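User: Can you help me understand a structure? I only have the sequence.
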Amino acid sequence: MVVCIIGSPSSENPRGPQKFVVQFSKWLSHRSIKGVVICGSLKKLATSINVNNISTPLFESEESALIKHLPSLVFSLSFSLLSFLKIIHLNKKHRLSIIHAQDANYCAMAAIVAARIIRVPVVLHIHGINMNVIRLLLKPKWLEKSIIARLYRAYYLLLQKELIKRSDCVICVSKDYTKILPIGEKILIPMGVDTASFQLTQNSADIREKLGVPKHAFTLGYVGALSAGKGLHLLLKLFHCILQEMPQEASTYLLIVGDGPEKMSLEGLAGELGIKQYLRLTGFRTDVLRLLSIIDTFVFLSESEGSPIAILEAMASGKAIIASDVPSIREIVRNGEEAILVDPHSMTDLKRAIMLLYNDPDLRVELGRKARTRAELYDIDRVYGQIVKLYEKLVAEKKDLNCLSSWHDKQT
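Assistant: Let's start by predicting it. Here is the structure, written out as tokens:
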């Protein structure tokens, strides 16, 4: 079996779908499953990479250049066309068995058209509803609420609906999305985490020293994209309030790991609040495991999520977690068991949860222990094994269908 994986045409730092492509491709290569990955960025559209050679910095950080120099719609359509041509070319070399697209729009368009020509099954992977894609297509900002924006949103949703109908199967990362997508054959497979690597003991002394975080400081942390809807501005304001209420001898820090369009805004707000000396904005990092080792409480206040890898990584690291009380997160952790779930808009609830964990180290340990145990349900061997079984089923069904079609053609 030869798998062709198409990564979403993105120009931001690796997010959920992109991380999945890298991690899943490495997993396939370790099991001697042949495959190629088609990915895209502003500099290189539709680049193909053998799964044995894939690396983490697969997707480049060029969002500002993308917006200024190349309209996102043009970029997406170009990626779709070049991906289609790349698939046809790769099929001549490798005889592809299945195509796995990481969204339900332009990436899926290339996959479905190519799959019909080379007669292989196609799987669409719905990681979440990415409204940022729509926003990037419409500049300036006042257009977002215009008739043009509404028409485009209608077109975008219609495109997704039609592509989903023409796929052989749709993988949804949460139950919430199986309800949102009422059409097509759907299967629920959450995101996965390499629990073995995240449970290794880490020496946090060196990373604390490099970041300037005192040894006994109580450290709040966030890992993920710095984008709208992640609750990061609220987190900074909350942290400011907590610092004012903490006793003078208390040492409290906030670690934010990641990059994105909100980075400059967050730096500006930190300056206005006067909390820069206690804030560590690291930018994008590949050593998330080491950074998690110095976090006492992981805070994740996203308004909407699919199956957040960041929470799975925090769970596998045995961290106490405060997270948004939204459907997709409730599927992963239970309130009062593996995490404390709060209203992501309530400053009062958030402050109460943080102070509770600050004053009760034993509770932090207990939540982290239960989170680590539950993370085993999302181990990559278990999760990715389900995807490979799905591949095998769809390939067998398509083979039978092609044989039947060939027999019918001979008869007529």
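Now, to help you interpret it: The radius of gyration is 22 Å. Residues 282 and 396 are 47 Å apart (CA to CA). Let me know which part you'd like to focus on.
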